[in-house]
Design brief:
mainly beta; Rieske Iron-sulfur Protein; three-stranded antiparallel β-sheet; 1 helix; 5% helix
Amino acid sequence: MSQQWKAVCRVEDIPVLGSRRVVRPGLIEVAVFRNDGNEVFALLDRCPHKGGPLSQGIVFGRSVACPLHNWTIGLDDGCARAPDEGCTPHFSVKVEADVVYLDEQELSTVGADLLRPVAGPVRKTA
């Protein structure tokens, strides 16, 4: 089956060394990043450590630092850099004529089994 691509934004809509979020109804958002080399990457907006919003992290080179605990996550593969361990899902990206596209199948399925992080104390159930 061939890939179906969905336009999500223009490259210029993503700040250099920053990100923007793609909303997926009922699912965790996707963070689309742009580095200083104008490369574009997409990760699930959830750090593999404690679920921090990677879209709020600092982009440097081909990595992003999680805003909660400063874990370094590779933008190309979603994996934490040593000594930290764990990966967050990454998404296929295509850029044509300065428009950013994500794979529609991945948008509807990747990370669908993951829960959205919840801030605050955990409730005990009886």
